[in-house]
C-alpha cells in the first residue's frame, strides 16, 4: 500500500502546544509481517496571526578555556523584551553544543529545554568544555518575547575554545654588582596566552610586572598565569654571588703594588678610601702609613 494517511484520533489535542522542541512520529502497523517503511513525514504549524519578529540585542561569541567553563551573561546574549521583564524573555534549545555541556543551575540542558533572560542575568547558564581539541563550538536556539509574542528562530550562539599556547622564558638582565648584594634583575618574556598576565617568582605572590628586581644570589623560576588560568613555568635562572674581594699589597722602595682577586671586574684602587683609580701600582710615595682599598 502507499499514499497519504491520517490518524484515527484528531490532532486537535495538540492545539495551543508549544511548537518549539523535537516532534517524534510513532506509527503502528497492525500487520507487521507485510513489511514497509515510512518514507517521509512532516508537520505544518498553523498560527492565528503573523508572528512578529523579536530582536536579539546582543549575541556575542563566548570565549572559554579548554577544559574550563564560561557563564553566558548579558554581554553575550540579550533579547529585547517589550515590557522589560527578564522572565518574559524565553530561550529554547533546538540543538546542543557538540564539545561541551550546557547547564542551567548546574542541571544539564537538552534539546527543547528552556532558560530565560532572568537566568542569564543571575549567571545561571553555563557552558563547560569537555577538554577535547576543538577550537569552536555552537548551539541553535529560538527566542520568544512573551510580552509581545515576538520570535527569533534558529539563531546561532557561537563559542570559541581557547587552547593553552602560553610559552615563557626568563633571563638574567642584571647580575649582582658586589658580593652579598641584592641587585640582580630577572626579566620574563611571554608568547601566546591571553593578557593580562600574572608573574610569580619561586611560588611567591603574583605581580603584574614581568621584571623582578633587587634579587640576591640564588636559583629562580617564574610561573606565569594568563586571563583564562593557563600557566607556564620558565627555565631556571641562576644568580651567582661574586667572590668577596681579597687584597694584598707589596712595597718596593717608594712603590706599592696592589693585587686583588674576587669581585666583579673592573676593579678600582685607592690609598685614602676616597680617590679611586684603575691603576693598581702607586709610585714614588712619600714615607708614611697607607691603607689600600679595592672596589669593584
Give a quick rundown of the structure.
With 296 residues, the chain is mainly β.
Write the layout of secondary structure elements.
Blueprint: E1 56-59, E2 62-65, E3 69-71, E4 77-79, E5 89-93, E6 100-104, E7 107-108, E8 114-116, H1 117-121, E9 125-129, E10 136-145, E11 150-162, E12 167-174, E13 184-191, E14 198-201, E15 211-215, E16 218-220, E17 222-225, E18 231-233, E19 237-239, E20 246-252, E21 255-261, E22 268-270, E23 281-282, E24 293-295
Parallel strand pairs: 2-11
Antiparallel strand pairs: 1-4, 3-9, 5-8, 5-10, 6-7, 6-9, 10-11, 12-13, 13-15, 14-17, 16-19, 17-18, 20-21, 21-23, 22-24
Key traits:
296 residues, mainly beta, 5-stranded mixed β-sheet, 4-stranded antiparallel β-sheet, 1 helix, 24 strands, rod-shaped
Please, could you describe this protein's structure?
The radius of gyration is 38 Å and the shape is rod-shaped. The protein starts with 55 loop residues before the first strand and ends with a strand. A 5-stranded mixed sheet has the order 2-11-10-5-8. The chain has a 4-stranded antiparallel sheet with strand order 3-9-6-7, with no helix packed on it. With 296 residues, the chain is mostly beta strands. The longest helix has 5 residues, at 117-121. A hairpin with a 5-residue loop joins strand 17 and strand 18. Helices cover 2% and strands 40% of the residues.
